Amino acid sequence: MKTLKAESIIKTMIVAIFMVLGTCMSANAQQTNNNQNVRQRMSREQLAEVQANHIAKAIGLDEALTKKYVATYCDYQKELWNIGPRLKRNSNMEERFDRSRKIIDIREKYYHKYKEFLTDEQVQKAFNEERRVMHHMKQKTKGGKMKGRARRG
Fold it and tell me: What pTM was computed for the model?
């Protein structure tokens, strides 16, 4: 009799331990997923700042120029966002031309702003690096590895 009671108590304890472990593992998995979502979902303002800092580092700006560049780049991105989303392929060609002109006007405006504190070479490097970063992000959002690009090595 005593052994049956002891076995029953041990079985109950084992089941309880597994239930507690299962609950802990489930809660931990949910917390990990939430942390990943928070990390992945930066605001576009935060993303623009990260991009600007990356570009500034890539072109070798010092701390003072980096601060100016980041502020100017973020303003530049905000103006581009105000144009609105990219138009569909079947959109009216005149609307597409109009949007392209707006983008060119903004790029030219900020080219002149950048020239106030960067050299011609730094401005060119910044625009090239921005294009490279945007291309990289576009490829990354399509999923997987970059397509159509030869490996170096």
Answer: 0.65
